[in-house]
Amino acid sequence: MKKTFLAAALATLTLAAAVPAHAQFAKPEDAIKYRRAAFTVMGTHFSRLGAMANGRVPFDARIAAENADVVLFASKLPYAAFGPGTEKGGETRAKPEIWTETDKFNAAATKLQEDVAKLNAAAKTGNPDALKTAFGAAAQSCKACHDNYRRD
Ligand code: ASC
Hints:
This protein is mostly helical. The chain has six helices and no strands. Helix 3 packs antiparallel against helix 5. Ascorbic acid (ASC) is lined by residues 43, 46-47, 50, 139, 142-143. Ascorbic acid binds at residues 43, 46-47, 50, 139, 142-143.
């Protein structure tokens, strides 16, 4: 009995994970809120790394690693919330090109995620110069997407 319940629960979880991510939002507004929240979290912790990378606050290896972990995690979240039908339905600055040049947008998203992974590794070296270099590259990726896919 207990085992059956566990198996059923596991099957449900597996199924939920297999459903296309965009179908996991009940309505477009939910997806829009979700992706904006993820970008807010990512941007907040990215900015804290930037303050260190640019010498506005003293370098602290532990704080750098903590912030880089949040950025890494947050970078995995927003892109599943750009599914078909989420172009509008809430407050958004997302440009329509996201849905007309999806391959290009996805490539830019992957690039950001790769840069953020490198930033995470750099933050963990404890070397401020490594952080600075990796931060600069990731910031370029942020900016490229904002320029191409975000309204002013
Ligand atoms: C930040 C932040 C961004 C990026 C971007 C880089 O600190 O919040 O969105 O850097 O401005 O150009």
